[in-house]
Design goal:
The protein has helices at 4-25, 27-47, 74-77, 92-111, 116-134, 153-179, 188-207, 214-230, 249-285, 288-308, 315-323, 325-329, 337-346. The protein is mainly alpha-helical. α4 (92-111) runs antiparallel to α8, α7 runs antiparallel to α8 and α9 (249-285) packs antiparallel against α10.
């Protein structure tokens, strides 16, 4: 019997050959083909099967159809690695949260007394969820599917937390990517948390006999692209032999919250430090008549940074503080004792 991946690979290749001439003139078709191939690759990787694009992707070594032009980008032709990331996680947070709400509603329906007024309220809420899901691409609320056997109460509760974890950590990943250069890898700890979140969903859905969750697959594909490209090793949660335990979802939520707090604190400290550095530069550059106002602003920033506490300062800011110690200690600036103590410790 032919293995299932052979069927899908053959079908994908036939579809690609049929649509390639159209894709040359219609970018929407080209994008759809790329998305289809990438989604299947992520699914096969999750199942431990060979890549579906092994024969259909021109970059895999197969001869490409077309006009004979070199389709590689300038970086690739020059021997430099490209950074073409295809996994699309923009819809994951919204869809995952909607699925979490669906799990919670399904749980409430199982626990509720079957009163007519309760049924009416639940039906209204269910209709609203389905309406929101319909407005999103490929959002399947399996927990509310009347054709499926209702999942156990505990599984629905855990699944809701698993989806919420994925939503939070993917939002963090999106924010980190926007803040960083394309040359910079996302934080390893963030990627590990995201790996655990998507793995927990895979494990839970496998228990319920559900395969191919769009958000789990796209999160996995996003991670796979970046771990491969940036050579980041995540020892667990990226294959079926080392899956996360769905029941650990509450503990994972706690660890994600701790990471969020640390990132937020570090970002705020960095912003205040940058402001302090700018004001120190201005105070040092101004004439005597104007510098006094800037030194007052320096004192304000210094108080703010001392209140935040912790965090290492960049060497240039340390040197600027050290060279300005006498002025900063002066009574006319009136720094608090806590700010003076912080200054002594960090300069």
């Amino acid at each position: 019997m032919t293995p299932p991946d052979s069927f899908l690979t053959h079908d994908l290749e036939a579809l690609a050959k049929l649509l390639r001439p159209i894709a040359k003139d219609d970018p929407r078709v080209a994008q759809a083909l790329g998305s289809l191939r990438h989604s299947l690759d992520a699914w096969f990787e999750t199942l431990g099967l060979p890549s579906s694009s092994a024969t259909s992707d021109p970059r895999s070594g197969a001869k490409s159809e077309g006009r004979g032009r070199d389709s590689r980008g300038p970086q690739e032709r020059a021997g430099r690695p490209t950074r073409e990331f295809r996994a699309d996680i923009r819809w994951v947070p919204e869809r995952a949260r909607l699925k979490a709400e669906a799990c919670s509603l399904a749980l409430a329906q199982l626990r509720a007394e079957r009163k007519p007024e309760a049924d009416a309220a639940e039906s209204s809420e269910e209709a609203a969820l389905f309406g929101r899901a319909k407005a999103l691409p490929e959002c399947y609320l399996w927990a509310l599917d009347p054709k499926r056997t209702a999942a156990p109460e505990n599984d629905l509760e855990v699944a809701a937390q698993c989806y919420e974890n994925l939503a939070v950590v993917v939002e963090l990943a999106q924010a980190e990517v926007q803040r960083r250069s394309i040359e910079e890898a996302p934080p390893r700890r963030l990627m590990s948390l995201m790996a655990e979140a998507q793995s927990g969903i895979y494990a839970m859905l496998a228990r319920l006999g559900i395969r191919g969750d769009r958000d789990q697959l796209q999160a996995f594909a996003w991670l796979r692209e970046r771990t491969d490209h940036f050579r980041i090793y995540i020892p667990r949660f990226m294959d079926r032999s080392r899956l996360a335990k769905p029941e650990d979802a509450s503990d994972l939520a706690r660890r994600i919250a701790e990471f969020v707090a640390e990132v937020t604190s570090a970002r705020e400290s960095s912003e205040v430090s940058a402001k302090l550095k700018y004001r120190l530069e201005k105070a040092s550059d101004q004439d005597d008549e104007l510098s006094d106002d800037w030194w007052v602003k320096v004192a304000e920033s210094l108080e703010e940074r001392a209140e935040q506490g912790g965090g290492e300062l960049e060497s240039e800011l340390k040197e600027m503080l050290l060279s300005s110690l006498d002025r900063l200690r002066s009574e006319e600036l009136g720094l608090s004792q806590s700010a003076l103590s912080w200054l002594e410790a960090h300069s």
